[in-house]
Amino acid sequence: MNGVEQEDSKPQNLVEHVNIYSMKRTEDDKQNGVSVKRKRTETFEFGNYNRYYGYRVQNGNVDPRLDILRQRLKLFKDKDILDIGCNIGHITYSIARDFFARSVLGIDIDNSLIQIARKNLRYYNSPSSPAVEKLLQSFEIDDENPVFSDCSSGFPNNVSFLHVNYVLYSDDQLIQEQPKYDIILCLSVTKWIHLNWGDEGLKRSFKRMFLQLRLGGALVLEAQPFESYKKKKLSAKLRENCRKLTFLPHMFDNYLLNDVGFLSCETLSVPSQSSLGFQRPIQLFFKS
Predict the structure, then answer these.
(1) 10 to each of 36, 60, 97, 172, how far by Cα in Å?
(2) Which end of the chain is more exposed for a tag (fewer CB within 10 A), N or C?
């Protein structure tokens, strides 16, 4: 069943609905006497804000990044896609449903966000759809591996989520990587990889993305500027890590093209309607 044909079944304020589980969890914490301030410090060390899309998208509008990516719809149609740092799944679901992807795997280091993303499936398709119920059951059965029940039948069977840390701990592990994706999304994730795993962790992740892409594939990159690294309150560990960084965001392009091996780079656009400083260029790095 194709989700695009069920446009009328979607809530009017989609972002408001997909955050419902995030808001409920915060209220439950308050009732149980959990310090939200303390919890926020512990939870957001990886940039895993459970209200992230509430910040990026206001008044139920479409995420402006989706409008930009939709201009290159052919890149996504019938393709296998990896969404690194998928948060609660808004971009993941939208690309799986509206961009006609063959398969989309959303991954995140925060298992609580993955659980929310899975539950949010109901808001991107008819809640009573047998396909939705079947897929939700498969999520519960297998929590360690991505499940694609039947990609050929389209949405929602072409989307899955996995709790995993994308950053490898050694370059030696890169030898195991094989090309399996046509598109890899890395949207507002580089900063948090950088702060937690340093220059080498981010470089290793870039290499892994390249190795996982098929020939002709592309990395869709939205990198945060270095100024933003210090805007949020960081733990003592992350502050110390930040002071050690020498591989700065303005160096990423050169590294990806000349060291990693990408053939070319194209800047799509800067989301002009983004709020709270989220005006970052979206770039495509192509693998020959």
Answers:
(1) 31, 12, 12, 46
(2) C
| Cβ atoms 171, 204 nearer than 8 A | yes
This prediction's pTM: 0.77
Q: Amino acid identity, residue 206?
A: F
Structural domains of the chain, ranges and CATH numbers in brackets: 3-286 (3.40.50.150)
* Tokens describing residue 131: 């396909």
Distance CA 194, CA 200 (A): 8
Could you say which DSSP state residue 223 is in?
P
Confidence grade of residue 282 (pLDDT, cut at 50, 70, 90): very high
Look at the block and give the residue holding tokens 């059965």: 141
pLDDT at 138 over 80: no
Q: Return mean pLDDT, the chain.
A: 80
CB count in 10 Å sphere of residue 106: 29
Q: What is the pLDDT of residue 254?
A: 99
Which tens digits make up the pLDDT trace of 28-59? 444 555 444 444 444 456 554 454 444 444 45
- Cβ-proximal residues to 86 (8 Å cutoff; 6+ apart), any chain: 92, 106, 107, 108, 113, 114, 117, 161
Q: What's phi and psi for 108, nearest 5 deg?
A: -155, 150
